Automatic annotation (TrEMBL):
A divalent metal cation binds at residues 33, 81. This is Diacylglycerol kinase. Its cofactor is Mg(2+). Its main location: membrane. Mn(2+), Zn(2+), Cd(2+) and Co(2+) support activity to lesser extents. It is a multi-pass membrane protein. Belongs to the bacterial diacylglycerol kinase family. The chain crosses the membrane at residues 36-55, 61-80, 101-123. It is an enzyme of class 2 (transferase). Coiled coil: none annotated.
Length: 131
């Protein structure tokens, strides 16, 4: 579902058109960002494991929250990177370094949160299964 009008610079006409552009954006990140692909793979594996191990609904909600946080973090980090690359034209600039590093730091925090949630959900379940 690529945007029907690639030359559009104004507002979307309706919700369907807005959704189409948003879909294009997520597809772009998926195709071009290796980390996003990795995060999606982890999300699918984690949710699958959750089904297999029959975790509770509230535990699923925690996993889903962590997954969404990481994916949105990755998308916002990509936005920052693209704006900085556009503004700096790929020339080294200490200010660009700080901005990109800070954005990357945000992603790392969401990833740490996701790992902690994963440990809280799966470690007790695995211990329970082993006993
Ligand atoms: N124009 C620049 N000026 C200064 N430092 C830069 C510049 N471009 C990149 N860097 C440095 O290189 C790092 C990686 O750059 P960038 O975020 O573009 O690559 P990436 O591999 O897509 O990162 P990520 O793994 O976070 O997606 C930045 O965090 C920053 O430290």
């Amino acid at each position: 579902m690529d945007s029907q009008n690639n030359k559009q610079t104004g507002k979307n006409k309706n919700f369907i058109q807005a959704f189409g552009h948003a879909y294009d954006g997520i597809k772009w990140v998926f195709i071009h960002e290796r980390n996003f692909k990795f995060d999606m793979a982890c999300a699918v594996i984690t949710m699958g494991l959750g089904f297999i191990l029959r975790i509770r609904l509230e535990q699923f909600m925690w996993l889903l929250t962590a997954i969404i946080l990481v994916l949105v973090g990755e998308i916002l980090n990509t936005v920052v990177e693209r704006i900085m690359d556009f503004m700096s034209d790929h020339h080294y600039d200490e200010r660009v370094k700080v901005i990109k590093d800070v954005a990357a730091g945000g992603v790392v925090l969401t990833a740490i949160f996701a790992i902690v949630v994963g440990l809280f959900v799966f470690v007790p379940k695995i211990i329970e299964l082993l006993n």
